[in-house]
Specification:
Length: about 180
């Protein structure tokens, strides 16, 4: 058995130890600094014995039922099917839930807000700075915030139009079904 400790480790063995260290970090068995040190030692190890030393004081990964990590959420159930006006089952269409992105309006608004909010924050900082400087100097020679806000606003506007166009196209396709 001692001969195996002196055998050369392969890259796959080092990666398996690195994965075991990652799991130990997620379970709270290692701190970030210690994880980093052990990971460097694992990737620098040449033999199985050196790899064993890196994980000697760690138990195997905890079973899923004992682990503090939450299991993956199950897939949502399929949308209920409602027959169309013609009464045939082949023309049935699924009912869309507002929570599952049926209309997409809250999602589109949040994406638009996510695009424009950083621009508005920067504008709320730059424009008052420019105004204070213009009032203090007595003249508004150049509106320098436009050099920042103009191109950036143009890009954000194009992205917004793209989002709105994509949502509009999706609504059209949904209506055709």
């Amino acid at each position: 058995m001692d001969g195996q400790r002196e055998m050369r480790a392969a890259d796959r063995d080092r990666e398996a130890v690195a994965e075991r260290l990652r799991v130990a970090l997620e379970e709270g068995r290692l701190g970030l600094h210690e994880y980093d040190e052990r990971l460097a030692r694992a990737y620098g190890a040449r033999t199985y014995g050196e790899l064993d030393e890196v994980v000697a004081d760690l138990p195997g990964p905890a079973p899923a039922e004992r682990s503090a990590l939450a299991p993956a959420a199950p897939n949502p159930p399929p949308a209920p099917v409602v027959p169309s006006d013609s009464g045939t089952s082949s023309a049935a269409t699924p009912v869309r839930s507002p929570v599952a992105g049926g209309s997409g309006v809250p999602e589109a608004r949040s994406r638009l807000l996510g695009l424009w909010l950083p621009w508005l924050r920067v504008a709320a900082i730059l424009v008052p700075i420019w105004l204070i400087g213009a009032v203090a100097s007595g003249h508004a020679a150049g509106v320098w915030p436009l050099w920042v806000l103009g191109p950036w606003g143009g890009l954000v506007l194009m992205q917004s139009v793209g989002l709105i166009g994509a949502d509009h196209g999706r609504k059209r396709r949904d209506r055709r079904r």
